TrEMBL record:
PANTHER family per record: PROTEIN ARGININE N-METHYLTRANSFERASE, PROTEIN ARGININE N-METHYLTRANSFERASE 6
Alphabetical list of SUPFAM superfamilies matching this protein: S-adenosyl-L-methionine-dependent methyltransferases
Protein encoded by which gene: prmt6
Lineage: Eukaryota, Metazoa, Ecdysozoa, Arthropoda, Crustacea
Record keywords: Methyltransferase, S-adenosyl-L-methionine, Transferase
Organism this protein belongs to: Portunus trituberculatus
GO molecular function, one term: histone methyltransferase activity
Name of the protein this chain belongs to: Protein arginine N-methyltransferase 6
Length: 382
């Protein structure tokens, strides 16, 4: 049987230039950049999106997300906490539904109708799971891009787990906002309704561990093979510092109180607002430590006040933290680190992010670092 042969309803697919729905735990693209050289930006975007959505057909990826109990329980609790006011007898759309678990939470909470949208082939399994759980009379699965699906009615609630690494990686949020502007009734609810990205100073112990280990490896080859390979030691360490890392940072390795980089009201924010996010910052060290990184994490809030946090202070999540390595600098109590952090969507691949950091420690020289958050970002280094 084909993927759409009587298995899922396939939404109409008119031409659209809007960004497509996406998620977080996969590489945002595989081969999309080659198409830019061959066929221009339109073909490149299609290639990037096709590869992206194909990655979300992997059932193991959905296990990773559902197995994150902080994430999954937060959505379930938010839905049930507000079931009488927001969900019961209401029309809901689930953008990027994956296996359909959030749609089924809404059905359990008494939703009158749920439209579950996903562009990947996981929609086939979502429909089967929904039928197996007895919710096919409430939930309709639509396999298609969020910008191209036509719903038969306006909705009261939008549910979506759109957050990526560092909140914005994979650029799914514009797709959710497209659905909001087209299909959400006036006064309708967004789950979540607010998102905040935080940053703080860090001393990531695993950076030091890697630097020492990789340096010693290249130097030690002289004793093993009687060949001097030490020239690569500095290059290996420098390369590691040029890469964005996705890794949990221990609470004790956060060296300052956080500051917010962006505070998004998801009922009003626009896709244009997301293309460039820039914020000056001033952070003060707590104690005498070795600064070697900037640490970023996010929180989201649901109607009713329930918060889902990826902070180092809280239980680990599959999003982990995002770490920008810096040259190591000693800090004293209340040493001031000030500068500006700018996040922009990459022009060659709309799912990637460019992260530009300018900073100064105390009265030292200004330093500029430019990172790209792409398929090469390192996760789970140790």
């Amino acid at each position: 049987m084909s993927e759409t042969d009587g298995v899922v309803e396939v939404a109409p697919v008119p031409v659209s230039e809007a960004a497509q729905p996406q998620t977080k735990k996969r590489r945002a693209s595989e081969n999309g950049l080659h198409a830019l050289q061959k066929n221009g930006s339109m073909e490149k975007d299609k290639n990037v999106d096709d590869s992206y959505f194909a990655s979300y057909s992997d059932i193991e990826l959905h296990r990773t997300m559902i197995e994150d109990s902080v994430r999954t329980n937060a959505y379930q609790q938010a839905i049930f906490q507000n079931m009488e006011e927001h969900i019961r007898n209401k029309v809901v759309v689930d953008v990027g539904c994956g296996t359909g678990i959030l749609s089924m939470f809404c059905a359990q909470a008494g939703a009158k109708k749920v439209y579950a949208i996903d562009a990947s082939k996981i929609a086939v399994h979502a429909k089967q799971l929904i039928e197996a759980n007895g919710y096919s009379n409430i939930i309709t699965v639509l396999q298609g891009k969020a910008e191209e699906v036509e719903l038969p009615e306006k909705v009261d609630v939008i549910v979506s787990e759109w957050m990526g690494y560092m909140l914005l990686y994979e650029t799914m949020l514009p797709s959710v906002l497209y659905v909001r502007d087209k299909w959400l009734k006036p006064g309708g609810k967004m789950y979540p309704e607010r998102a905040v990205l935080h940053m703080a100073l860090g001393e990531a112990q695993w950076i030091t561990k890697y630097e020492e280990g990789t340096y010693d490896f290249w130097v030690s080859l002289n004793h093993v093979y009687n060949l001097d390979m030490s020239l690569l030691a500095d290059h290996a360490v420098a390369r590691y510092k040029d890469v964005v890392h996705v890794h949990m940072v221990a609470q004790e390795d956060v060296l300052s109180f956080p500051t917010s980089i962006c505070d998004l009201d998801l009922t009003t924010i626009t896709p244009e607002d997301l293309r460039t996010i820039s914020r000056p910052f001033s952070l003060y060290s707590m104690g005498s430590r070795q600064l070697n990184s900037i640490v970023l994490w996010f929180d989201v809030w649901f109607p009713g006040g329930l918060k889902l946090s990826t902070s180092p202070d809280n239980e680990d999540t599959h999003w982990q933290n995002t770490v920008l390595p810096l040259a190591t600098v000693p800090l004293q109590q209340d040493t001031k680190v000030e500068g500006e952090l700018t996040i922009t969507q990459d022009l060659t691949n709309h799912r990637f992010l460019n992260v530009d950091l300018t900073y100064r420690v105390d009265k030292g020289e200004e330093v500029t670092r430019c990172f790209k958050m792409d398929d090469n970002c390192n996760d789970n280094d140790f």
